Every structure is written in C-alpha cells, then in structure tokens.
Amino acid sequence: MSESQQPIEGGQGTAPKKIGDIPISVLDLSQILEGHTAADAFRNSLDLARHAEKWGYNRYWVAEHHNMPGVASSATSVVIGYLAAGTSSIRVGAGGVMLPNHAPLVIAEQFGTLESMYPGRIDLGLGRAPGSDRRTSLALRRDINSGEDFPALLEELRGYFDASKTSYHAPLRAVPGEGLDIPIWLLGSSDFSARLAAYQGLPFSFAGHFSPDYLDRALDVYRSAFRPSETLAEPYVMLGVSLIAADTQERAEFLSTTMQQQVIALTRGRPGKIQPPADLSSQLDPLELSAVRKRMESAIVGDRAAVERRLHELMERTRADELIVTSGIYDHAERLHSYEILADIAIPAGKAAR
C-alpha cells in the first residue's frame, strides 16, 4: 500500500486545532458562468485544480447536481477523470456522488476504473440526497424515497470493493473495483449520515456551507457515536465552508453578491447560470432578503485579516480535522486569487512544494 493510500488519520476530537495544522481542500461545482459554456467551466475547473495542487491543497472534489444550468459536474466520475488526468499529486474525488441515483455496482466500477488509472489519488464521497428537484429525481431514479435505502446501498457498494466477500464464483463482481483501496466518505447536511458514518467508522464531511443550523448537532452525534473500524481509529470531520477572500473587505463583499444571486434564484425556483456581481440593494423582497442573510451568516467573506480571524473562530467552535472550501466567485481570476489568499493564510509553505 502506498503512502497516499494509507488510512486517514483520525482527529483527536477534543482540543481545538489551528489553521495551518490541518489540511485544506477545494469543493467545486464546475460553475457555468453567464455568457459562457460547460466547456469553459471544465477548463476553469482544471486550471483551479492545477493551482490548488501547486499551492498545497489536500484534495479537489466535485459534486453531483442535476438540472441546474449553472452546474456542469453532473457526470461526476467523468469530471474526476478529467481533473485527475490534468494534475499529478492532489487527491481528486466526489463531494459527492448521490448514491441513490445510481446502481452501486456502476459506482464501484466507475471508481474502480478511476483508482486503477490514478492509484492512491481517488476519493469517493457519498450522499443520500437526489442532488436536484423531484421531477429530476424521477428521471434519475424512476421512483422517489427519502433515502431510507441509503444504508443498504452503502453496504452493497462497499461489498464490491471488499475482495474477501467475493470470488470467481460470486454472482456479481466489480471489475475493476474489487480489492481496491478507495477511501469512502459519508456526506451530510443533517445528523442522518453523521450517525451512519459513526456506526460504520467512516470519515464524515458536513455541508456547513449550506446547512449551518445542523452543524453542531451533526458533529456531536458523529463524535459521540463513533465506533473505531479498520478504516478509521478515531472520528475525522471535514467541514464544508463558503469562503470569499479579496484584497479589501469591500471587494470581497461585492464579489459575494454572485453567491447571493444564486440564493435568490433558488428561492424563486429559477436556478440559472452564475451571474456577475451586482448591486442588489433594491432587488430583494423581505423573503429573499431573509434567505440571503441566512445563507451568508455561515460564509466567510473578507480581506486577509477578516478571513483569518473567522477561520480561527470556526476552528475553535468545530474542532474540524479538515476544511473543504467552496468559493462561488464569477470571475475566474478573482476566484483563483481568493484561493491563493486562503493558501497563504492556511497552508504552510512547505506543503506547496510538492
């Protein structure tokens, strides 16, 4: 087993950690900008992944969403292959694959293929939500449930990777996939997957960037119920964070209006492409203003000093073992600069020299 394939080192879960002492990762939706195409989105994602690798980020994840004009990462495993082929050392994975949308055998084969092509670099994060609306869920699954079958699907998927449970006489085998060491994460925005990850002894990634109200409960459930496993001796939490950094506080706040417009579009039930920043002061009704304020409460937006202060506060509160950061900025150069500022704050210089 290579060094990159060693089991994740669990966090202590007691003493607060410090920025600079934990890994920092990137969460990307391959956002499609207004006036641009999905092809442009993929090129921008690869460019960001290459910069993230150079700056010392730990992993680069893309997420499965469907029927959303501003998100190009619907065929998640295909995008992962594209990003892995264009980089050389950064871990690449799904944050995540919505498992109830797929046959577990297909996911085992897809990620077995990726791991065979890019050994020691592939992560498989799994969620139980549909990643879209009810109509799209019907098109994907042909039936609707609230994720009750997720534990059974997870068990089936993990069985395909476990060579001890299969043989040449087994009725179903994942080829490639069987016997490969692919880290599996559970993703969640409530305490359901937190509890399941704890019982299974798996690492847990919480979507703090869009579900902050459940953060404290989910982390408490995961840590208190955690059962050590062959995968993980201690609980390991990766926390999703929305972060926009710029040279000035004013510039960062202006850039954040792109993210605010996404919240408004979802509130109106009309998701679209990613919009350039704009003055929104006269465009919001009370309901939309409340939704925007709620979403922005958990976002870290500011200049270097403000970002550094908020990151330290977040670590004091959550004791996260890793942060995975999404930055919904319209201009690609500005998005790169935001991640560069974060790297300068949070990633020791030696880690960038890969």
Automatic annotation (TrEMBL):
<feature type="domain" description="Luciferase-like">
    <location>
        <begin position="26"/>
        <end position="315"/>
    </location>
</feature>
<dbReference type="InterPro" id="IPR036661">
    <property type="entry name" value="Luciferase-like_sf"/>
</dbReference>
<dbReference type="InterPro" id="IPR050766">
    <property type="entry name" value="Bact_Lucif_Oxidored"/>
</dbReference>
<dbReference type="InterPro" id="IPR011251">
    <property type="entry name" value="Luciferase-like_dom"/>
</dbReference>
<comment type="similarity">
    <text>To bacterial alkanal monooxygenase alpha and beta chains.</text>
</comment>
<protein>
    <submittedName>
        <fullName>LLM class flavin-dependent oxidoreductase</fullName>
    </submittedName>
</protein>
<dbReference type="InterPro" id="IPR019949">
    <property type="entry name" value="CmoO-like"/>
</dbReference>
<dbReference type="Pfam" id="PF00296">
    <property type="entry name" value="Bac_luciferase"/>
</dbReference>
